Structure formats: structure tokens, C-alpha cells
Amino acid sequence: MAGSISARAISDRESSVRRHAGATFSGMTHPIVHVEYPEWVDNTVDWNRRYLSDDDRMRVAIAVARANVEQSTGGPFGAAIFESRSGRLVAVGMNAVVRLNNCVLHAEMMAFMMAQQRVASYTLNAPSLPEHELHTSCEPCAMCLGATLWSGVRRVVYGAAREDASLLNFEEGPVFPESYHYLESRGIEITRNLLRDEARVVLELYRAKSGKIYNG
Amino acid sequence: MAGSISARAISDRESSVRRHAGATFSGMTHPIVHVEYPEWVDNTVDWNRRYLSDDDRMRVAIAVARANVEQSTGGPFGAAIFESRSGRLVAVGMNAVVRLNNCVLHAEMMAFMMAQQRVASYTLNAPSLPEHELHTSCEPCAMCLGATLWSGVRRVVYGAAREDASLLNFEEGPVFPESYHYLESRGIEITRNLLRDEARVVLELYRAKSGKIYNG
């Protein structure tokens, strides 16, 4: 429920402010942005498994989206980044816009940030690294599609389509067919609507809980 | 210089890892992403001034971009968010992709994150808040333009144009005339090429220092 999500967001924020009061320069206290997973992540994700099929990988993204709704920690979106060949799970991401008061923290964005922190590189396409791919439970918005290009992933697989998200009044922003052509022309492979029905169930679950629509 | 920037990035990262070893759940250590300003920010920015003209506001963004290059803390891009009517400076942002190993941390993105943390809202367009606007030293990329829509700013003013950044091989991604129309149709005002020559000087400074081109 919206109320429940908001209450948790406020409580998380206050606790974060207590722990990280901000750096002080010249007497002025500046904000520090602190991005971390909610505590349920290890109950949802098996980090040691090798995810070899596309279905297995997408189900991680969908499971994270579902847990985010069930635990009232954010919007109905999840993402996961894998090493393409080994199937090793590098990072997940879940929508944290309301929880962390941060419009940037869509599931895909958190996954990119966490993966890059883990491998200590600002691109997952560094010469020393194996190929990486993103699985996301819903078609990326304009921001996330732009970030995909900078992230260094070589492939994007999405579950639910933008029309499915639009039914909940979530908006994708300025994404056009040319946006996808642009990514493809840079060698990024796009796979659409994998396990779309399973992904859509999580959107419906969020709607049934009257979850907050935080765009705009 | 690229070498100097890289060395600083590694040193910053190691220090960050020492200070924030990550949360441990079930024996698994997860990354924590920690975004903060470099230490020079208060030498560059006067937080107490009221910035009443567009030129004054853009010069904050350009000054931050310049300091980022001069201090070798990142790419030649700066941004600032103001309350539109009062001219109060709410947050700045500087490119931190290399410094923090994070492809998401373009100047505009850091400015959005810091501003939202400061006002404790995931949108700067909340009913309790005054109108906000973004000034950025260079035309936003696809990711930042998408984030602009979610950020809640009501106006975007940019300095240098995408062609100026392209001369340094920085890429803007899938941005089309329709992308701007989309934002404008949502009531976001766009002002282009303000103090373009002053903004371009910082790009040239970065090129002269052989700064790292981190896209891709």
C-alpha cells in the first residue's frame, strides 16, 4: 500500500540520515547519497547459482520485482546483471525511488551502479572483463535506456512491455524505435517480452496493493 | 591528464572501500554505492548567494565543470539546481564517472540525486516545494534527459551543445528532436546554448589536459 511504502521510506531515510550525517566542508553540511539493497535481498536471490538459460535469468529479475512489492520497499520493477557466458550473477537492482527519495533509482540504474561497484569499473565492457548482460522485468524507460549504452552491457532482455507499465500509469518517457536502433547500431542486442506474462503478474500485484505511482 | 585522473579514481575508491566495507547479509557482502562531492566544492561554490539571473546560474554550472577538470576529479561537465523564483542554490553536480566507478554519475544525475536528498523528496515538483530548474554546462545526454523528466525540474538551461562535446568524442546517445518535444509537452521549458562560448572553454581545457573519454 502507498501509505506503507511511504512510512517505510521515511523510516529508512531517517535511519540513513542518522548514520550518515553528511560531510562537512567549511561549516556547510552536504548531502551524501547512499545506495544499498533492502535487507530481504538474500532471501530472494541465490548468489552462488549459475544461471544458464534466459528464462532462469529473467526469473531473477522478476523475483526481485515481486519481493520489492511484497516487502513494500518500492515499485514493481527488478533487474539483474549476469556474465553472459558463465551465467554468474553480478548484481541485482530493485526500484528504490520512494524508499531512498531518489528519482534516478530505477531497478536498472541500481543494477548498473551495484555491478560497477562490484567489478570496480565504470564500464562492464572493460577489456579485462567478460561480457555482461542486463535482464529487466519491464521495458526500460528513456533514462535507463540511455544508461544502458554507458553501462557496457552487450545485451538487454526485458519482460513486460511499456504498454503493460502504462496500464498502471507508469511512463517510459522519450523512447522511440530509433532509440533501440541506436543501441543496436552500437552492438547491443535487444530481446523483447521474455516471460512477459510472468513479469506482468508483478505489475498487477502492485496495482492490487494500490502502490504509489511516483513518476512526474 | 588521464593518468592523473585514473590514479585519483583508484585512490578514492580504495579509501571509500576502507570506510564502507559493505553491508553483510547471510555472510554475503554487498556493494554500497556512496555518492559525495569532492572536497573542493566549497572553494568553488557560494551556497549563501542568491543567483537571480540566468547568466549567474549558468556560471555556477560552468565553474563546477572547470574545477572538476582543474582538480582532476572527473569529466568537463557541471550542473546546478536552483529554486526558480528565489535563486537559492539547492545542489550542484559534477561528472564523477571515473572518480566513483559509476557510469550513471553524469553532472546532471548527481545534481538531481543531491537536490532530492536535500529536500527529502523523490521529485522536485512536490506540492510543498517551490519550482526548481536545472542549469547544465553542456547539453544533456539521453540518460540525463530522461532523468530530467522524472526529477521534477520545470526548466532546463544548457550551455555548450552536443556538437561541442562530440568534438571530444563524448557521445549524447539516442536524443532526437522528439525527445525535447516530449519534455516540452510535459511543461518543461528548454533554454539552449546560454553562455555557450564560456562553457566550451572548459571542454577545450579538458582536451588540452588529455582527459579521459569514458563513454562506451
Largest interface: A-B, 59 and 59 residues
Beta-strand content estimate of chain A: 15-25%
Gyration radius of chain A, in Å: 17 Å
N→C terminal distance of chain A: 19 Å
Number of strands of chain A: 8
Average pLDDT number of chain A: 88
Strand order of the largest sheet of chain A: 5-4-6-7-8
Helices of chain A, by number, come to: 8
Coarse morphology of chain A: globular
Task: Note down, in words, how this protein is organized.
Two copies of one chain form a homodimer. The first copy, chain A, has helices spanning 2-19, 41-44, 54-70, 107-119, 142-151, 162-166, 177-185, 196-208, and strands spanning 23-25, 28-30, 33-35, 78-83, 89-94, 132-138, 155-160, 189-191. The first copy, chain A, has 216 residues and is α/β, with parallel strands linked by helices. In chain A, the strands form two sheets. Chain A has a five-stranded mixed sheet with strand order 5-4-6-7-8, sandwiched between helices. In chain A, strands 1-2 form a two-stranded antiparallel ribbon. In chain A, α3 (54-70) packs parallel to α8 (196-208). The first copy, chain A, is globular, with a radius of gyration of 17 Å. The first copy, chain A, starts with a helix and ends in an 8-residue tail after the last helix. The interface between A and B is large, with 59 and 59 residues.
